[in-house]
Amino acid sequence: MNYLAHIYLSGDHKMITIGNFVADGVRGNKYKLYPSEIQKGILLHRQIDTFTDAHPLFRQCTKRLHKGYSHYSGVIVDIFFDHFLAKNWTSYSNIALELYVANFYKSLTENIALLPPRFQELTPIMIKGNWLLSYAKIEGIQLVLNGMNNRTKGRSKMNKATRELKLHYDAFENDFTAFFQELMDFSATKRIEIEQQFST
User: How many domains are contained in the chain?
Assistant: First the structure.
C-alpha cells in the first residue's frame, strides 16, 4: 500500500501513524533505535506490506500491469489503491479528507526531528504539493507516477500507467474495495498484537 493507506490503517495514534509512514526509510533492526510508539508503526507497516503482496486480489491487479511494467506493477497498484481510498474517503472516515491530511501534515511537522533523513527531506515537498489530497483525482496520480518514472530515469515507464487505470478502472476499484475491507480487519488485529508484544 502507498502513503495514505498506511496512514489510515494506523488508527488514531499519532506516533504509530508516523512510524507506519516512515517505515520504508528504516531497514532491518534499526527500527529499535526509534521510540516505542514509532517502532509499533514500523512493524505494522511491514505486516501490512506482507499481507498485501501475498493477497490474491492485489496479485490480480498487478497481472493487469505486468506486461507493460514488470516488477514495477506492485508499486503502481499501491498508488492506484491510494487513489481509490482518497476518492471514496467518505466510505471509510467521518473526518473530511482535507482535514485529515492537514492534521497529519501538522503532526509530521511537529515531529520532523524524529523522522529518518529521507523523510525529513520528503515531508516539506509532500506538504507543499499536498500529495495525500491530490490522490483523489487521476491528475494527482499522474503527477505521482511522473515523479516515480523520473526517479527510475525513465526505465519504469510508470508515467504511462494511468492509461491502464482508465482502461480497467472499474475492475481496479472493485478489487480495491474487496481487498481493503480485508486489509482493515487484518490491520486492526495486528495493531492489537503489536501492542501486546510491547506490553510484555
Answer: 1
Cell matching residue 60: 490480480
Q: Whole-angstrom distance between the N-terminal and C-terminal Cα of the chain?
A: 29
pTM score? 0.94
Q: Is residue 19 within 8 Å of residue 42, measured between CB atoms?
A: yes
Local structure of residue 11 (DSSP, 8 states): T
Is residue 19 within 8 A of residue 45, CB to CB? The reply is yes
**Separation CA 158–CA 148 (nearest Å):** 7
Q: Which residues of 101-119 are buried (b: 16+ CB within 10 A; e: fewer)?
A: beebbebbeebeebbbeeb
Give me the domain span that covers residue 39: 3-199
Q: Which residue has the cell 506490506?
A: 49
Distance CA 105, CA 108 (A): 5
Distance CA 148, CA 156 (A): 8
- Which tens digit of pLDDT belongs to each residue from 6-20? 999 999 899 999 999
Q: Which three cell numbers stand for residue 6?
A: 498506511
Quote the DSSP letter at residue 96. -
110 membership: H or E segment, kind and range: helix 97-110
DSSP characters over 118-169: HHHHHHHHHHHHTHHHHTTSHHHHHHHHHHHHHHTTTSS-GGGTHHHHHHTH
